[in-house]
């Protein structure tokens, strides 16, 4: 499996699945969540409302992941996860690790071969980008080690799509430290 670092708007990437750093309501927000809803079109909000009505009336808990189609996005699916909010006292790194891990697991269940992540919790939710990068990269690496060697249909490429120079630098450094 390849890990790629890109400075990019995640909504433009022609991958099988993009991950949304959503909030528990699933009803949209600012940052990458707002950008994904704008690019996917109103059907995405309808799909999220349907999930709330049927399976998640109280919203998506922190670290869990659910998927919808990508609608007008180049990506086939959107995997919505909720990162921990440091401003709400959610400072346990395991919560962020689980958000990455559960998104990867959802991708495998969907049969996605390519997936792109933003810097989950690295914006409004207030985590240091260095820490997001370390946890993101290490979680993907551990996930890869846990997959069977011959894994037809498994993930081939995990891309981190970073919005700023700083975020990109943090992820490159984290990946260098891993190798
Ligand atoms: P959170 O609430 O989980 O912190 P944010 O959306 O506030 O989520 O920020 C997460 C990261 O996503 C930030 O580093 C932000 O700069 C970045 N971001 C915002 N818009 C986009 C986009 N269109 N593509 C990729 N990353 C984005």
TrEMBL record:
The lineage of its organism: Bacteria, Bacillati, Actinomycetota, Actinomycetes, Actinomycetales. PANTHER family: GANGLIOSIDE INDUCED DIFFERENTIATION ASSOCIATED PROTEIN 2-RELATED, MACRO DOMAIN-CONTAINING PROTEIN. SUPFAM superfamilies: Macro domain-like. This is O-acetyl-ADP-ribose deacetylase. It holds the Pfam family Macro. It comes from the Bacteria. Residues 1-179 form the Macro domain.
